[in-house]
Amino acid sequence: MAPLSVYGESKALGERLIQESKASALIVRTQWLFGVHGKSFPRSMWQRARAGQITRVVGDQWGRPTFTRDLATATWTLIRKRVQGVYHVANTGTATWYDLAYTIFAATGRTDLLARCAAAEYETRARRPRFSVLDTTKFETTAGYALPHWKDALSQFVSELEGDKSSEREGSQW
Asked: What's the CA dihedral at 93, 145, 71, 102 to 10 degrees?
């Protein structure tokens, strides 16, 4: 593990300190979270698409989008099994930020507003790795199942957003 930012370094330090303490612990690593409550990249994309905003999104960074509801269920599965150690938990399938945005914009019928760009062309405060796809084999073997594909989870997320009128008022800043 080679963190690229202070945020990543603090997460790695926290994990290392927990492991060095020899305490019974379960560490769950995940990535690219989205859920019906709070801010997230998919929520921002959904709001931008519905507002008719032209949007450029990075298409050369890969990860595994993860629905918070699926993550919560998976975490409880691990807790009930009383396992310890480090587990990677994420929805199945890999995607770029652009893939994720495209799926949202397609759901709103506004793919014409979306353009792909390279990470080098998009300024951001946080440095992100090009390929950060988590290997969830250990979780899947232990739990006996894999989380749903991220596209299925995203479809559920969009359906819930469309049914929740208050979601447009929550705002988002990606």
From this structure: 20
What pTM value is reported for the model?
A: 0.86
- The CA distances from residue 64 to 10, 60, 82, 94, in Å, are 21, 13, 25, 5
Encode pLDDT of 137-160 as tens digits. Answer: 999 999 999 999 999 999 999 999
Q: Over 90: is that where the pLDDT of 163 sits?
A: no
- Of residues 7, 87, 122, 145, which has the active-site annotation? 7
Domains of the chain: 31-160 (3.40.50.720)
Q: Is 7 assigned a catalytic role?
A: yes
